[in-house]
Description:
By secondary structure, the protein is mainly α. The protein folds into two domains: 3-32, no CATH class; 41-77, no CATH class. It is built from four helices and no strands. It has helices at residues 3-13, 17-32, 41-55, 62-77. The protein is elongated, with a radius of gyration of 24 Å.
Amino acid sequence: MTTKQEIINKVNTIENSAFLDEILNLIRIESEFEEIYALTDEEKNAVNEGLKDLDEGRSYSNKDSKKMVSKWLKEQSSGL
């Protein structure tokens, strides 16, 4: 039995209308997130700029990025 089938079977046994309403609300919320997101022109430009940087070797490893962020955070917190 698939997860989806198990959920359907369980929901079919629920008598509590308030609980069923909450399940329906969750399903409605989830379906709102299924819409395809269209990038704005600004977002498309930012993505293309990032891809160009990557193609031209202007990138950092995850390890280096973490070091840079850590250093920046220390610098920012030293004035507190």
